[in-house]
Amino acid sequence: MEHNLQVDSKEVAMANVGLITYHASQNQGSFLQAYATQQAITRLGHQCTVIDFSLPMQQYAYQVWKPLRSPKDVLKNIFALAHYRDYTGRYRNFVETQRTLLHMTAEHYSDPAQLQAFADTFDVVVAGSDQIWNTSAWDYDDAYLLNFVGNHTKKVSYASSMGGHILDKQSDMTLAQHYQALLSDFASIAVREQDAVRYLQPLVRQQVQQVVDPTLLLTSAEYDAIAAPRMIDEPYIFYYAIDAIDRNAAAARAVQRFAARLGLPVYVMWTGNRSYGLKKYGFRLVDVTADPREYISLIKHADHVLSASFHGTAFSVIYRKPFHVVRGVNPDGTLNMDNRLSSLLALAQLEARQLFADRTSDNNWLDDVDMSVIDYDTVYAHLMPEIQRSRAYLAKALEV
């Protein structure tokens, strides 16, 4: 059963829509959520332009050669030189994919003040998905709360995330007032996680809705259209985790033991220089210049997916793959129970599909792991009403 996102048969007035989100991060999930939001808006009959904005700090994080601001930058440049092909190839691939698949503004903007040029350019401006409302993020700016948009332009959000621990900040009255002030003139507010609904609803007059991540609005067939060909010619487990996962030895050991049970090799994708550390666990590093097209391919063709990533899990569901979420251990010894992943698993009623890395010392640990075949017809019976409701929200929010 495939779901689809088509324009309703009733006539819709085409809106000129601007989208601001974390589209420029050289991160698979960030790019694909931006692409999916763009495609969802377009399929509803509107024109969508991604505002090509990213802060210098975000650009610094992904550029190959770092400007020399500290001794660490010298070391980073030496490391980049040692892995020149890996770094430059991945950077070029990402940039080319962004330019090819995203309909972006002609100019790039790195200063929030420059965005005043768009104050009244669009009929609607959408604050998109990803953690764009996480004020603790190093690449956050109030532009993602649409502080540059004029009074005559409709402001809406779709699946904006406030990060995995927003309820821990409820006692911060200054932060609450900040959100309250900047969201006061939004026409529609939709967030990705239920915790964000709980946090924001007491602060604003609008009804705050929870919607699905935009990647879930597109079908596997639509992603097939941009996916790279198969990359690995043998059965395999694809393990996807962000840059720092090699520091989490418990998670890596959990993946090792799980893979041994299945008798399959583990392939990982380069997400930063710490990814090289995963080799010591016997994991195989695939083409390290891999871009989002290849990321889709690696999930599509995997025999099993292990993911510590929200979007790694989302694409496992989209492609109906056997999967488990790897719950790593925080520096203080607690499990990383990020509610972004918990929210998705609860929505799909797949909470049992988790590997808890703090339990690996138990020799019988894997006996308690749910290895049953996932009934995706049942999963989509739960998901489809939420996908359709999310689609309806977006269609209504974009009306002009």
TrEMBL record:
In this chain the Polysaccharide pyruvyl transferase domain maps to 29-326
Query: Can you tell which superkingdom this protein's organism belongs to?
Result: Bacteria
A Pfam family: PS_pyruv_trans
Q: Which InterPro entries match?
A: Polysacch_pyruvyl_Trfase
* Protein name as it appears in the record: Polysaccharide pyruvyl transferase domain-containing protein
